[in-house]
Amino acid sequence: MALEDLLAARTVWRAGRGGAIQHAGEASGHAALDALLPTAGWPRKALTELLLPAAGIGEITLLLPALARMTAAGGRVALVAPPYIPYAPAWQGGGIDLAQLDVIQAEPRDALWAFEQCLRSGAFAAVLGWPQTADERALRRLQVAADSGHCCGFALRDARHAVNASPAALRLEYRSQTGAWHVRKCRGAQVPSQPLRLVH
């Protein structure tokens, strides 16, 4: 294929012209966040990492608007080995169609495999997983699986992993000291410097 054909197909990144966005984003339901991201929302066919100082700091609330829209449109959402039993009334109150929500219990040694299989299956619009022992290679498999399965993957992980390299298309870290989300990586654009405080 000639260079001109590659450029026309928007598969080659050109320095100084921004990255080629191959997949439009899934609106997050937070206008300030969508304005920061090159896909104008959660990247589709990709893995997003949410790096957390502790569970329960608002990470599910961050995701609920998009997940609610997906389930309302008939898309299925999977929770793979969540650390706590999901409280159904809260999910329903957040707009989730519970008939479209699958909770998959798995032992820690099997959870990563189950997460990958759900992402790859093509049966889900979004898959949330809590991988405890995923290294860069495992995350790359998750990223490839999300691409193959045409879904939004969300890996909710401890903030200590923020210093490690990751193939995820998007990485957001919540910092308790600022009370805000910080974009650590976003494929297709420079990382925004300003923190993001979302009103829930």
Automatic annotation (TrEMBL):
<dbReference type="InterPro" id="IPR050356">
    <property type="entry name" value="SulA_CellDiv_inhibitor"/>
</dbReference>
<dbReference type="GO" id="GO:0006281">
    <property type="term" value="P:DNA repair"/>
</dbReference>
<protein>
    <recommendedName>
        <fullName>Translesion DNA synthesis-associated protein ImuA</fullName>
    </recommendedName>
</protein>
<keyword id="KW-0227">DNA damage</keyword>
<dbReference type="InterPro" id="IPR017166">
    <property type="entry name" value="UCP037290"/>
</dbReference>
<dbReference type="InterPro" id="IPR027417">
    <property type="entry name" value="P-loop_NTPase"/>
</dbReference>
<dbReference type="InterPro" id="IPR047610">
    <property type="entry name" value="ImuA_translesion"/>
</dbReference>
